[in-house]
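Run log, item B.
One chain of 184 residues. Sequence copied directly from the ordering sheet:
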Amino acid sequence: MADDSKATDVGQRYALALFGLAKDEKNIAAVEKDLKAIKAMLAGSADLRTLLASPKFSAEDKGKGIVAVGVKAKFNMTTLKFLGLLAQNGRANALASVITSFEALSAAERGAVSAQVTTAVPMTPAQAKAVASALRTALGKDPEIETRVDASILGGIKVKVGSRLYDASLKSKLDQLKFALKRA
């Protein structure tokens, strides 16, 4: 558990440094676009995840691999240099944390808030609009919603905003009921 918090701290520090650099160079949007593309690539490629997470690959190999992916995707030079530095410093495994932290910093800069919405089945456009409206009312800011589908929650919805988790999933309600029955 301690390793997770260290990785998060590392990710936040690197994200803050990248955000400061991108802000100075006035290309926050381009860097964020690149990071979102990497996030999608990580989600879709087991080989890329293995490259970044495996200790079998050297920092140099990880750097070459991730920079080659960035060059192929025509990433901004700031993003490419950052990816190389991250790998060179042996922190390639913290890339997902860096991306999440950077997105939060960028959203805060725009006056928006990032929210991760998880449902058991894909939401319809009307449902997504209703969730966005409810979040806008509750938070007082425009939400930037990232949706996920996780059948294991069985039904309902989970919304994560920053470090807060609002869990109205059927799975958690059943778990609570199970716990209450065991105590009785």
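Observations after the first pass:
- The first strand starts at residue 112 and ends at 119.
- Residues 1-7 have pLDDT under 50 and may be disordered.
Flagged for discussion on Thursday.
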